[in-house]
């Protein structure tokens, strides 16, 4: 899976590991950087709006 992929899953942490991928798109934004504090751009409960770019 490309690093810029966005995946959505439910409350089960094993959903991704079990192959329950629900890929909805990709982004050019950096979502994770170990040098950041916290390292993730998004946090649980944060609202995100997905927009179709007609790719």
SSE inventory with pairings:
Blueprint: E1 5-7, H1 14-17, E2 23-26
Antiparallel strand pairs: 1-2
Order of helices and strands: EHE
Mean pLDDT across the residues is 76
Shape: globular
Helical segment count:
1
Biggest β-sheet: strands ordered side by side in the sheet: 1-2
Helical content stands at under 10%
Distance between the termini: 18 Å
Strand percent estimate = 5-15%
Count of beta strands? 2
Provide an overview of this structure:
The protein is mostly beta strands and 55 residues long. It has one helix at 14-17; strands spanning 5-7, 23-26. The model has no long low-confidence stretch (mean pLDDT 76). 7% of the residues lie in helices and 13% in strands. Strands 1-2 form a two-stranded antiparallel sheet.
Structure at a glance:
This protein has one helix at 14-17; strands spanning 5-7, 23-26.
Which terms summarize this structure?
single chain, 2 strands, 7% helix, 55 residues, mainly beta, globular
């Amino acid at each position: 899976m490309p690093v810029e992929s966005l995946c959505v899953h439910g409350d089960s942490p094993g959903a991704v590991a079990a192959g329950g991928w629900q890929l909805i798109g990709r982004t050019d934004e950096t979502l994770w950087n170990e040098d950041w504090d916290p390292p993730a751009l998004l946090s649980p409960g944060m609202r995100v709006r997905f927009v179709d770019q007609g790719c």
